[in-house]
């Protein structure tokens, strides 16, 4: 387990200056979490993507969380479903802001994921987003807004994104015109 965690860590260090880390508990979460990737790509934020499971690869979880800041990561987006312990555990091992995305589960439609992520004890914070793709997209936006505090290029893209979004809605005031 530790050997494979170190191997994965080596692969991580080969990525170019990621500002945001997108992690998720399973490859099955990717369909949801790729919405965060799309937003970061659109806004010109550098990021990395990695499967890190709280339960199946706990050593990697510790290593990832403990080394993220020193590798230049500024925000972590963590998606998980069911017993969604990944965001909270990552938050407990880093001072970086962690945004949790509840992935929609088969058994309970993501209510389990949402409550697992949201109900953190006072002292360790996770910013919890909506269940599913909207939550993943908004995690990408929120992470970009943090980066935009000190990155002018990202800030300009973010403001332009918001302007276009508003313009698009205002351009079709009557849904029958669509
Ligand atoms: C969680 O268990 C993952 O985040 C995923 O949402 C869920 C199911 O994982 P798989 O069984 O599809 O790998 O740890």
From TrEMBL:
<keyword id="KW-0456">Lyase</keyword>
<feature type="binding site">
    <location>
        <position position="26"/>
    </location>
    <ligand>
        <name>substrate</name>
    </ligand>
</feature>
<protein>
    <recommendedName>
        <fullName>N5-carboxyaminoimidazole ribonucleotide mutase</fullName>
        <ecNumber>5.4.99.18</ecNumber>
    </recommendedName>
</protein>
<dbReference type="InterPro" id="IPR000031">
    <property type="entry name" value="PurE_dom"/>
</dbReference>
<feature type="binding site">
    <location>
        <position position="29"/>
    </location>
    <ligand>
        <name>substrate</name>
    </ligand>
</feature>
<dbReference type="GO" id="GO:0016829">
    <property type="term" value="F:lyase activity"/>
</dbReference>
<comment type="function">
    <text>Catalyzes the conversion of N5-carboxyaminoimidazole ribonucleotide (N5-CAIR) to 4-carboxy-5-aminoimidazole ribonucleotide (CAIR).</text>
</comment>
<dbReference type="Pfam" id="PF00731">
    <property type="entry name" value="AIRC"/>
</dbReference>
<dbReference type="GO" id="GO:0006189">
    <property type="term" value="P:'de novo' IMP biosynthetic process"/>
</dbReference>
<feature type="binding site">
    <location>
        <position position="56"/>
    </location>
    <ligand>
        <name>substrate</name>
    </ligand>
</feature>
<feature type="domain" description="PurE">
    <location>
        <begin position="18"/>
        <end position="169"/>
    </location>
</feature>
<dbReference type="GO" id="GO:0034023">
    <property type="term" value="F:5-(carboxyamino)imidazole ribonucleotide mutase activity"/>
</dbReference>
<comment type="pathway">
    <text>Purine metabolism; IMP biosynthesis via de novo pathway; 5-amino-1-(5-phospho-D-ribosyl)imidazole-4-carboxylate from 5-amino-1-(5-phospho-D-ribosyl)imidazole (N5-CAIR route): step 2/2.</text>
</comment>
<keyword id="KW-0658">Purine biosynthesis</keyword>
<dbReference type="InterPro" id="IPR033747">
    <property type="entry name" value="PurE_ClassI"/>
</dbReference>
<dbReference type="InterPro" id="IPR024694">
    <property type="entry name" value="PurE_prokaryotes"/>
</dbReference>
<keyword id="KW-0413">Isomerase</keyword>
<comment type="similarity">
    <text>Belongs to the AIR carboxylase family. Class I subfamily.</text>
</comment>
């Amino acid at each position: 387990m530790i050997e494979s965690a170190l191997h994965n860590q080596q692969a991580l260090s080969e990525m170019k200056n990621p500002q945001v880390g997108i992690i998720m508990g399973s490859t099955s979460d990717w369909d949801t979490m790729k919405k965060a990737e799309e937003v970061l790509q659109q806004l010109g934020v550098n990021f990395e993507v990695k499967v890190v499971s709280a339960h199946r690869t706990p050593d990697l979880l510790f290593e990832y969380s403990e080394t993220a800041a020193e590798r230049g990561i500024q925000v972590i987006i963590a998606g998980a479903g069911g017993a969604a312990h990944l965001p909270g555990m990552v938050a407990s091992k880093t001072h970086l802001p962690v945004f949790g995305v509840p992935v929609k589960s088969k058994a309970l439609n993501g209510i389990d994921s949402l409550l697992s992520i949201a109900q953190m004890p006072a002292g360790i914070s996770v910013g919890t987003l909506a269940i599913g793709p909207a939550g993943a997209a908004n995690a990408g936006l929120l992470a970009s807004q943090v980066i935009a505090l000190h990155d002018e290029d990202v800030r300009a893209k973010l403001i332009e994104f918001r302007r276009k979004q508003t313009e698009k809605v205002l351009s079709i005031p009557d849904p029958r015109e669509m």
